[in-house]
């Protein structure tokens, strides 16, 4: 029945909604992950700093790594905004690919932020008691951060979907 309403070259008018939802998912979920990772790690830094204030600046790494997750979402959001078209040439395939790109980046960054927050909190506290735990903490944080990077890479691949055409019957 949808094919009756579509003329050659025209796409459904609600497709930009899905593209913009991809932008929203990318930025919102990645910032949620960044905020959680920052807050949880900052609690550990504050707690450790009361007992051992000397290594506080050295242990700020988890907060920086969590903040990078928000940048991943911003990058994907900006790329998606540049590719979304409001006219009737924005195909469902492109729109759904952009939604998937935003969700892959956003949800991967959310999971990475949760991991960074937990590792940052307990790792910083443990490092305050035993300085030899600094390098293992950094390695674990890197493995947590790379989950967000994987989401960013997949999102960038999904934004390269070829421009589709809407034809009757699609």
Q: Would you mind describing this structure in some detail?
A:
The protein is an all-alpha fold and 170 residues long. The radius of gyration is 21 Å and the shape is elongated. 75% of the residues lie in helices and 0% in strands. It has one domain (11-158): Four Helix Bundle (Hemerythrin (Met), subunit A) (Up-down Bundle). The chain has helices spanning 2-5, 15-51, 61-83, 92-129, 134-158. The chain has five helices and no strands.
The number of helical elements comes to 5
Low-confidence segments, ≥5 residues, pLDDT <50?
A: 1-8
| Alpha carbon gyration radius | 21 Å
What oligomeric state is this?
Answer: single chain
Mean pLDDT across all amino acids: 90
Profile the largest sheet.
none
**Topology, number of strands:** 0
What's the short version?
The chain contains five helices and no strands. With 170 residues, the protein is mainly α. It has one domain: Four Helix Bundle (Hemerythrin (Met), subunit A) (Up-down Bundle), CATH 1.20.120.610.
């Amino acid at each position: 029945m949808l094919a009756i309403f579509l003329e050659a070259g025209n796409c459904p008018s609600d497709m930009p909604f899905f593209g913009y939802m991809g932008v929203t998912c990318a930025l919102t979920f990645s910032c949620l992950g960044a905020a959680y990772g920052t807050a949880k790690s900052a609690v550990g830094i504050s707690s450790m700093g009361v007992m051992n204030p000397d290594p506080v600046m050295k242990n700020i790494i988890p907060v920086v790594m969590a903040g990078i997750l928000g940048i991943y979402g911003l990058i994907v959001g900006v790329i998606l905004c540049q590719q979304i078209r409001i006219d009737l040439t924005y195909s469902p395939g492109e729109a759904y690919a952009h939604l998937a790109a935003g969700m892959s980046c956003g949800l991967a960054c959310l999971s990475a932020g949760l991991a960074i927050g937990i590792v940052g909190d307990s790792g910083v506290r443990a490092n305050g008691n035993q300085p030899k735990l600094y390098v293992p903490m950094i390695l674990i944080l890197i493995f947590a951060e790379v989950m967000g990077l994987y989401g960013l890479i997949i999102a960038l691949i999904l934004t390269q979907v070829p421009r589709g055409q809407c034809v009757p019957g699609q």
